Protein backbone atom coordinates (compact mmCIF):
# COMPACT_ATOMS: atom_id res chain seq x y z
CA UNK A 1 0.00 0.00 0.00
CA UNK A 2 2.82 2.38 0.85
CA UNK A 3 4.56 1.68 -2.48
CA UNK A 4 1.38 2.33 -4.46
CA UNK A 5 0.77 5.51 -2.50
CA UNK A 6 4.31 6.70 -3.15
CA UNK A 7 3.91 5.95 -6.85
CA UNK A 8 0.65 7.86 -6.90
CA UNK A 9 2.35 10.80 -5.21
CA UNK A 10 5.14 10.84 -7.77
CA UNK A 11 2.54 10.68 -10.56
CA UNK A 12 0.69 13.66 -9.15
CA UNK A 13 3.95 15.56 -8.85
CA UNK A 14 4.62 15.04 -12.57
CA UNK A 15 1.44 16.82 -13.65
CA UNK A 16 2.61 20.35 -12.70
CA UNK A 17 5.96 19.70 -14.40
CA UNK A 18 4.26 18.50 -17.59
CA UNK A 19 1.98 21.51 -17.46
CA UNK A 20 4.96 23.87 -17.25
CA UNK A 21 6.66 22.14 -20.18
CA UNK A 22 3.44 22.27 -22.20
CA UNK A 23 2.94 25.98 -21.68
CA UNK A 24 6.59 26.64 -22.44
CA UNK A 25 6.18 24.78 -25.72
CA UNK A 26 3.08 26.84 -26.56
CA UNK A 27 4.99 30.01 -25.75
CA UNK A 28 7.73 29.04 -28.20
CA UNK A 29 5.20 28.35 -30.95
CA UNK A 30 3.40 31.65 -30.34
CA UNK A 31 6.58 33.73 -30.16
CA UNK A 32 6.17 35.26 -33.65
CA UNK A 33 5.15 38.91 -33.27
CA UNK A 34 3.96 41.07 -36.17
CA UNK A 35 3.37 44.82 -36.19
CA UNK A 36 1.83 47.12 -38.80
CA UNK A 37 0.54 50.69 -38.93
CA UNK A 38 -3.13 50.81 -37.97
CA UNK A 39 -3.88 53.75 -40.28
CA UNK A 40 -2.07 54.97 -43.40
CA UNK A 41 -3.00 58.06 -45.42
CA UNK A 42 -1.92 58.62 -49.00
CA UNK A 43 -2.62 60.76 -52.05
CA UNK A 44 -3.74 59.86 -55.54
CA UNK A 45 -0.79 59.16 -57.84
CA UNK A 46 1.84 59.23 -55.06
CA UNK A 47 3.52 55.97 -54.00
CA UNK A 48 2.33 54.61 -50.64
CA UNK A 49 4.30 52.33 -48.32
CA UNK A 50 2.50 49.76 -46.17
CA UNK A 51 4.86 49.00 -43.31
CA UNK A 52 4.95 45.57 -41.63
CA UNK A 53 7.62 44.23 -39.27
CA UNK A 54 8.01 40.92 -37.44
CA UNK A 55 10.09 39.29 -34.71
CA UNK A 56 10.73 35.55 -34.52
CA UNK A 57 12.76 33.38 -32.16
CA UNK A 58 13.61 31.08 -35.08
CA UNK A 59 16.18 31.88 -37.74
CA UNK A 60 14.90 32.95 -41.14
CA UNK A 61 14.92 30.09 -43.65
CA UNK A 62 13.52 29.45 -47.12
CA UNK A 63 10.35 28.23 -45.41
CA UNK A 64 9.41 31.73 -44.29
CA UNK A 65 6.31 33.05 -46.05
CA UNK A 66 4.66 36.47 -46.20
CA UNK A 67 1.13 37.09 -47.46
CA UNK A 68 -0.60 40.43 -47.98
CA UNK A 69 -4.35 40.51 -48.55
CA UNK A 70 -6.80 43.30 -49.37
CA UNK A 71 -10.44 43.73 -48.37
CA UNK A 72 -12.55 46.53 -49.92
CA UNK A 73 -14.67 48.76 -47.67
CA UNK A 74 -18.02 47.30 -46.58
CA UNK A 75 -17.11 43.88 -47.99
CA UNK A 76 -16.10 40.50 -46.58
CA UNK A 77 -14.29 39.45 -49.77
CA UNK A 78 -10.50 39.29 -49.47
CA UNK A 79 -8.01 39.40 -52.32
CA UNK A 80 -4.42 38.13 -52.27
CA UNK A 81 -2.12 40.87 -53.57
CA UNK A 82 1.36 39.67 -52.59
CA UNK A 83 3.17 36.44 -51.62
CA UNK A 84 6.78 35.90 -50.57
CA UNK A 85 8.82 32.73 -50.15
CA UNK A 86 12.51 33.15 -50.98
CA UNK A 87 11.31 35.48 -53.75
CA UNK A 88 8.58 38.09 -54.14
CA UNK A 89 5.40 37.29 -56.06
CA UNK A 90 3.18 40.36 -56.50
CA UNK A 91 -0.28 39.83 -57.89
CA UNK A 92 -0.66 39.67 -61.67
CA UNK A 93 -4.43 40.16 -61.68
CA UNK A 94 -7.07 42.44 -60.23
CA UNK A 95 -6.96 46.15 -59.44
CA UNK A 96 -3.44 45.93 -57.97
CA UNK A 97 -1.88 44.30 -61.02
CA UNK A 98 1.68 45.60 -61.68
CA UNK A 99 1.34 48.11 -58.84
CA UNK A 100 2.65 46.15 -55.82
CA UNK A 101 6.39 46.28 -55.06
CA UNK A 102 8.48 44.54 -52.41
CA UNK A 103 10.39 47.02 -50.20
CA UNK A 104 11.11 44.75 -47.23
CA UNK A 105 14.04 42.69 -45.96
CA UNK A 106 13.21 39.41 -44.21
CA UNK A 107 16.63 39.23 -42.55
CA UNK A 108 15.86 42.51 -40.81
CA UNK A 109 12.32 41.53 -39.92
CA UNK A 110 10.78 43.81 -42.56
CA UNK A 111 7.79 42.60 -44.60
CA UNK A 112 6.75 45.95 -46.10
CA UNK A 113 5.31 46.56 -49.57
CA UNK A 114 4.45 49.67 -51.59
CA UNK A 115 1.58 50.63 -53.89
CA UNK A 116 2.34 52.73 -56.97
CA UNK A 117 -0.18 55.03 -58.68
CA UNK A 118 -2.80 54.69 -55.92
CA UNK A 119 -6.40 55.68 -56.65
CA UNK A 120 -9.51 56.32 -54.59
CA UNK A 121 -10.56 52.73 -55.33
CA UNK A 122 -7.62 51.43 -53.28
CA UNK A 123 -9.22 52.45 -49.98
CA UNK A 124 -9.76 49.46 -47.70
CA UNK A 125 -8.15 47.07 -45.23
CA UNK A 126 -4.77 45.40 -45.79
CA UNK A 127 -3.53 42.41 -43.74
CA UNK A 128 0.05 41.23 -43.26
CA UNK A 129 0.61 37.54 -42.36
CA UNK A 130 4.05 36.05 -41.69
CA UNK A 131 4.97 32.41 -41.00
CA UNK A 132 8.45 31.28 -40.03
CA UNK A 133 8.29 27.56 -39.10
CA UNK A 134 8.16 26.44 -36.39
CA UNK A 135 6.73 29.89 -35.53
CA UNK A 136 3.44 29.76 -37.40
CA UNK A 137 0.83 31.00 -34.92
CA UNK A 138 0.64 34.74 -34.51
CA UNK A 139 -1.52 37.83 -34.60
CA UNK A 140 -2.50 39.23 -38.01
CA UNK A 141 -2.38 43.05 -37.90
CA UNK A 142 -4.51 45.10 -40.29
CA UNK A 143 -3.91 48.50 -41.87
CA UNK A 144 -6.70 50.87 -42.90
CA UNK A 145 -5.65 52.76 -46.03
CA UNK A 146 -7.25 56.10 -46.91
CA UNK A 147 -6.42 57.61 -50.31
CA UNK A 148 -7.51 61.20 -51.05
CA UNK A 149 -6.88 63.91 -53.61
CA UNK A 150 -4.15 66.35 -52.69
CA UNK A 151 -6.02 69.62 -52.12
CA UNK A 152 -5.06 73.20 -52.94
CA UNK A 153 -4.35 73.89 -49.26
CA UNK A 154 -1.73 71.15 -49.15
CA UNK A 155 -0.06 72.42 -52.33
CA UNK A 156 -0.09 75.98 -50.96
CA UNK A 157 1.56 74.90 -47.72
CA UNK A 158 4.24 73.04 -49.69
CA UNK A 159 4.96 76.14 -51.77
CA UNK A 160 5.13 78.26 -48.61
CA UNK A 161 7.60 75.85 -47.06
CA UNK A 162 9.74 75.92 -50.21
CA UNK A 163 9.72 79.71 -50.20
CA UNK A 164 10.85 79.80 -46.59
CA UNK A 165 13.67 77.34 -47.26
CA UNK A 166 14.86 79.36 -50.27
CA UNK A 167 14.52 82.95 -49.03
CA UNK A 168 15.32 82.57 -45.33
CA UNK A 169 19.08 81.97 -45.78
CA UNK A 170 19.33 84.96 -48.14
CA UNK A 171 17.41 87.16 -45.71
CA UNK A 172 19.78 86.15 -42.91
CA UNK A 173 22.80 87.06 -45.06
CA UNK A 174 21.33 90.46 -45.93
CA UNK A 175 20.54 91.20 -42.26
CA UNK A 176 24.08 90.26 -41.23
CA UNK A 177 25.55 92.52 -43.90
CA UNK A 178 23.34 95.40 -42.81
CA UNK A 179 24.39 94.89 -39.19
CA UNK A 180 28.02 94.89 -40.26
CA UNK A 181 27.50 98.12 -42.18
CA UNK A 182 25.79 99.67 -39.16
CA UNK A 183 28.69 98.71 -36.91
CA UNK A 184 31.19 100.17 -39.35
CA UNK A 185 29.14 103.34 -39.58
CA UNK A 186 29.13 103.63 -35.80
CA UNK A 187 32.90 103.09 -35.79
CA UNK A 188 33.33 105.84 -38.37
CA UNK A 189 31.32 108.24 -36.24
CA UNK A 190 33.54 107.52 -33.24
CA UNK A 191 36.64 108.04 -35.34
CA UNK A 192 35.30 111.28 -36.76
CA UNK A 193 34.74 112.56 -33.25
CA UNK A 194 38.33 111.71 -32.39
CA UNK A 195 39.52 113.67 -35.42
CA UNK A 196 40.11 110.77 -37.87
CA UNK A 197 38.50 111.00 -41.30
CA UNK A 198 38.55 108.45 -44.09
CA UNK A 199 39.29 109.48 -47.59
CA UNK A 200 36.51 109.46 -50.18
CA UNK A 201 38.24 106.55 -51.93
CA UNK A 202 38.13 104.35 -48.79
CA UNK A 203 34.46 105.16 -48.18
CA UNK A 204 33.59 104.46 -51.83
CA UNK A 205 35.44 101.12 -51.78
CA UNK A 206 33.63 99.93 -48.64
CA UNK A 207 30.25 100.96 -50.04
CA UNK A 208 30.90 99.16 -53.33
CA UNK A 209 31.99 96.02 -51.46
CA UNK A 210 28.81 95.93 -49.38
CA UNK A 211 26.60 96.52 -52.42
CA UNK A 212 28.37 93.77 -54.34
CA UNK A 213 27.82 91.26 -51.49
CA UNK A 214 24.12 92.11 -51.26
CA UNK A 215 23.72 91.83 -55.07
CA UNK A 216 25.47 88.43 -55.07
CA UNK A 217 23.15 87.18 -52.31
CA UNK A 218 20.03 88.32 -54.17
CA UNK A 219 21.36 86.85 -57.44
CA UNK A 220 21.87 83.45 -55.77
CA UNK A 221 18.31 83.60 -54.44
CA UNK A 222 16.85 84.26 -57.91
CA UNK A 223 18.96 81.49 -59.45
CA UNK A 224 17.83 78.87 -56.86
CA UNK A 225 14.16 79.86 -57.02
CA UNK A 226 13.78 79.62 -60.82
CA UNK A 227 10.11 80.61 -60.81
CA UNK A 228 8.44 80.02 -64.23
CA UNK A 229 7.90 83.14 -66.33
CA UNK A 230 4.53 83.95 -67.79
CA UNK A 231 4.39 83.71 -71.55
CA UNK A 232 3.44 86.91 -73.40
CA UNK A 233 0.62 86.65 -75.87
CA UNK A 234 1.20 88.38 -79.22
CA UNK A 235 -1.60 90.21 -80.84
CA UNK A 236 -2.42 89.96 -84.53
UniProtKB/TrEMBL annotation:
Example of a GO biological process term: extracellular matrix organization
TM ranges: 159-179
Protein name (record): Myelin protein zero like 3
Compartments where located: Membrane
Taxonomy, superkingdom: Eukaryota
GO annotations of cellular component type: plasma membrane
Signal peptide: 1-31
One Pfam entry name: V-set
Region (Disordered) location: 197-217
Gene name as annotated: MPZL3
Residues covered by the Ig-like domain: 45-148
Organism of provenance: Ailuropoda melanoleuca
Main subcellular location: membrane
UniProt KW keywords: Disulfide bond, Glycoprotein, Immunoglobulin domain, Membrane, Signal, Transmembrane, Transmembrane helix
Stretches with biased composition (Basic and acidic residues): 208-217
SUPFAM superfamilies reported for this sequence: Immunoglobulin
Family: Belongs to the myelin P0 protein family.
Mode of membrane association: Single-pass type I membrane protein
